[in-house]
Each structure stands twice: as C-alpha cells, then as structure tokens.
Amino acid sequence: MAITTNFSLTLFFFFFFFFFFLFPLFSNLGLAQVEDPELKTCKHQCLQQHQYSQSDQQQCLQSCELYHHLKQEREKQIEEETPKKKDHSHYHQHQQEEESRERQEEEQEKQEEEDDNPYIFEDSDFHTKVQTEGGRIRVLKNFTQNSKLLQGIQNLRLAILEARPHTFVSPRHFDSDVVLFNMMGRALLGLVKESQTEKFILERGDMMPIPAGTPLYIVNREEREKLFLAMLHIPVSTPGKFEEFFGPGGQDPESVLSAFSQNVLQAALQSPIGKLERLFNQQNEGSIFKISKEQVQALAPRRSYWRPFSGPSRPEFNLFNRRTTYSNEYGRLTEVGPADDKDNLDRLNLMLTLANISQESMSTIHYNSHATKIAVVIDGRGFVQIVCPHVSKAKHEKSGPSYHRISSELKPGKVFVVPQAHPFVLMSSKGQNLLVLCFEINARDNKKFTFAGKDNIVSSLDDNAKELAFNYPSDLVNKIFNRKETFFFPLESPSEERADA
Predict the structure, then answer these.
(1) Cβ atoms of 187 and 227 closer than 8 Å
(2) Which of 3, 299, 410, 412 has its CA 20 to 30 A from that of 281?
(3) Same domain, 292 and 333
(4) So what's the pLDDT on residue 92?
C-alpha cells in the first residue's frame, strides 16, 4: 500500500513540475493551442496500473483532475498576462521613441540657436592667449566653432594685440603667415631679415605682410596711448592652428633654446653650462612688458652720417593714405589687394579694405563674387545686415530658397564674417563715422556687385529680363533702382515725392 501511495504522489509531482516549468515553454512554442491530451493519458495510466487498489486508482484520478484544473487556471493566467506584457513592451518602445525624438528636437533647436547669427562674433568668442601687466593677445575661436557654414575659412585665425604705452613685445616667430594692420597707436616693428634687423615705423592704418618664420619684435612708442594691432594668421603646417616661438628669452617667455640638452647648447654656443644657465634664467617679465622712455629711444632707428638712407623703413601700404576705390560725402572705400602687392598679397590671395562710412549713412547692398570678408570694427557704431539662405526657417514650399536676415549692432572690436556671394549692408549710427577693417579671403579676380546705386545689377539688366523677373513694367523698375550715388548713400527714408514716383 505504501508503494502505490508513493507512486501516486510521484506521478502528481511529475505533472506539477511539468505544468509549472515545461508548460509555459510549450505555450510559447504554440503547443498550448492544440487540444490537451494530458488529462486523458493521465486517467488511462491510473486505470492501467494493476497493482493499484480501487482506492489508489481513485486517488490517482483525482490527482489528474487537480492537474487539469490547475492547468486551465494557468492557461487563463497566461492569456491575461500576455497582452499586458505586449502593452508594457509597446509602452517602453513608444517612450524610447519619444525621448529620442525630444533629444533630436533639442539638438536641432540648439543648432538653430547657434546658427541664428553664424557670422557674428562677440567678445566672449575671444580667448586670451597672453596676459601680462604690459598687455595681452586675444585670439578669436576657430570660425567653424561658430558655424559649419564657415568651413571655407576654417584654416585662418584672427588675433588682436593690445599693448600698453612704452611696452616691448618680445622677439618671436610664427608658424603662420601674418598680415598685420595697425588699428590704433604708433609702433616700431623690427623684422630680422638675413643678417640684420629692418625697422619699420607703423602709423595708424599701416599694413604689413610678414612671411611665416620671420623673427619680429614690436614696441609701443607712445607714452599715453595703447597700441592695437589686428593680426590675421594663415597657418602653414597645421590648418586652423598657429604657434609662437621665442628665441631670445628666459624663463618667461621661455626660450626655445632652453629645451635643448646641455651638451647640444654648449657645443652650439661654445659656452659653459653655468654661463648658459645664467643667460636663460634672467628674463621673467612675460612676453609683453613695460620699458623706460630711454629704452624706447634706444630702439628707435637712427640715420647714419655715412649712410643717409639708413633710417626706418616705411610700410608700402597705409590704407588711410591710399587712393579710394569709391568715395563721396557719405563714405569712402579703400582697397589694397593682389594687384598692388605681387610678393605677398598675391601669394596669399588676400585683399585688405577699409570702409569709412559717414554718420547716418550706409553702404549699398552688395556682395563679393569670390571673396569671403572677415571684418573688424575699428571705430564708431552702426549695424550690419547679412542675407543668408542656409538658416532660413521658412516652411512653405517655393521654387527657390528662402532667406534669413542676420543682424547685429556694431561697436569697436566687433568681428563679423560675410561669406562669398552673400548680400550685406553696413550702416553707421548718429554722431560718428563707422570705420571697418576687412580681410578679404580669395580676393584674386573678385568683383563687387551692387543692388542699388549707379551701375547696379538690376539696372544693368535688359528691360525684357527685368519685366520677366519682377513681373512689373521695366520703366517702373528703373525708377526704383536708378540713383546717381555710387556705393554710399544717406541713411534716410524717401520723401513723399520719391515714394510716389
């Protein structure tokens, strides 16, 4: 009797194990959908056990019924849980898609915010490369950090040197070509050429191209006025980066020579190590430091009685003194480019321009055919507007692009970029002229096309083309676009007579 009872319990536990552990697996495989034969088989086995008494068989059949009941309950539970799992999985998938979409929208909004003014640079976009009591050098961040739209000038860097009165900017050379422009003050520039130093007196408006690797030093000759130099660096070895190297120096600025081994320096300079250590441990004033009036005078070039032409050299170009390209009572534009300097500006494919816009006046709306303009405001206040097709937020469909107006207030030190072919306009405020220095990149064969004033592109179109382009009578188009001034105009609204014409 004990044997048959144990067998019945063993059979029960077998079905219990099958139901709770194997059946869910079969259900997932789709076998639960077929008519279940387990109950019938279970009962048949109970009745076929000859060693069972009638009581044992009855107990075995009850175990089968219990198993069948539990199985049905389990099937019902699985059916109820499966949709919930599907719904839960679908919810998580939907939630992940929503989070991904929100992240993409945030990134897009951030990019749009950055691109709202992709061509305008603020003071915060400069980082200080050198800072001493005597002055500082600030470098504008890489242009492509502001916008990928400026990849055409990503190799270039703009730096501003500010030196206090009577200061000495230590000798150095750069791994970049440099175009230097004196924005304010009077300076002495020393350039090492072959076996001697050639000295230049730099007045406001003077421009100097300096080939890469040329050793130079700078002196602010003024007793009370600061010196401001704009320096456009065109890197030679590493695109978008430039470095300065100090030859003469000590601890601060550190001389490049101090990095060589002692035996190399002793052999090269034929001096014992003690003397060399004293030499390279003396200077610790920084790379820009104040000097005395006597030291400034000692650095100034002097004419020799025996060499009457041995005085200071003069830069070939001063933008304030050059003949203007466009000039009237509302403004002047001066240009120096590749055709004027075959040795340097032609090699660099660069032009410098100086726009001097009279107060409450404006330039014409115009664009450059080839050149990209990097502009620095030297003096005055005003505004710039640039039309850009790349950041338009227009959603409606058109057969051509939609345009976004990029606007910014201008003040001294403000930097902006106008890419090639982008129309723009400069306007001066009341009270003072607006003075803007421009480095124009890819200047060779560049042409300026205007939309207003004498010889503008609309007036130059034939009448049939005008009528087709505007769907408007050509004589009325001509009345709107024709005016006598060239390039610079008064910043004023038209009179009623002009508006009704």
Answers:
(1) yes
(2) 299
(3) no
(4) 64
Q: Identify whether residues 137 and 196 lie together within a single domain.
A: yes
Cα dist from 357 to 333, 361, 386, whole Å = 8, 6, 17
pLDDT in tens, 248-286: 998 999 999 999 999 999 999 999 999 999 999 999 999
Residues 56, 14 share a domain: yes
* Same domain membership, residue 298 and residue 155: yes
Domain assignment present for 267: no
User: Helices then strands (H, E): number in the chain?
Assistant: 13, 27
Q: Could you tell me if 203 and 81 lie in one domain?
A: no
**What pLDDT does 447 receive?**
95
Evaluate the CA torsion angle 312, 318, 320, 323 in order and state its sign. positive
**Residue 136's pLDDT band (cuts 50, 70, 90):** very high
Mean pLDDT, residues 492-498 taken together: 69
Confirm whether 392 is domain-assigned.
yes
- Answer yes or no: is 483 within a domain: yes
Judge if 203 and 234 occupy the same domain: yes
The pLDDT assigned to 51 comes to 63
Helix (H, G, I), strand (E, B) or coil at 204: coil
Tens digits of residue pLDDT in 445-478: 999 999 999 889 999 999 999 999 999 999 999 9
> Regarding beta strands 227-235 and 176-184, do their DSSP bridges make them parallel or antiparallel, or are they unpaired?
antiparallel
Residue 428 CB-density burial (10 A; 0-12 exposed, 13-18 middle, 19+ buried): buried
Q: What angle do CA 308, 314, 315 make, to 5 degrees?
A: 155
Number of separate domains in the chain: 3
Q: Is residue 159 located within the same domain as residue 300?
A: yes
Element at 189 (helix H, strand E):
strand 187-193
Rounded to whole angstroms, the Cα distance separating 433 from 358 reads: 5
**Does residue 23 have a pLDDT over 60?**
no
- Domain boundaries, position 419: 319-500
The pTM (predicted TM-score) of the whole model is: 0.74
- Cα–Cα distance, 188 to 181 (Å, whole number): 13
Percent of the chain surpassing pLDDT 70: 80
Distances (CA, A) of 192 to 198, 215, 216, 428, 481: 6, 5, 6, 41, 54
Q: What does the DSSP assignment read for 272-341?
A: -HHHHHHHTTS--S-SEEE--HHHHHHHS----SS-TT-S-B--SEETTTSPPSEEETTEEEEEE-TTT-
Residue 339's CATH number: 2.60.120.10
- Verify that 390 and 463 share a domain, yes or no: yes
- The answer to whether residue 190 sits within a structural domain is yes
Cα separation, 295 vs 191, whole angstroms: 18
Sign of the CA dihedral 336, 337, 343, 344?
A: positive
Nearest to 169 by CA among 205, 211, 209, 216: 216
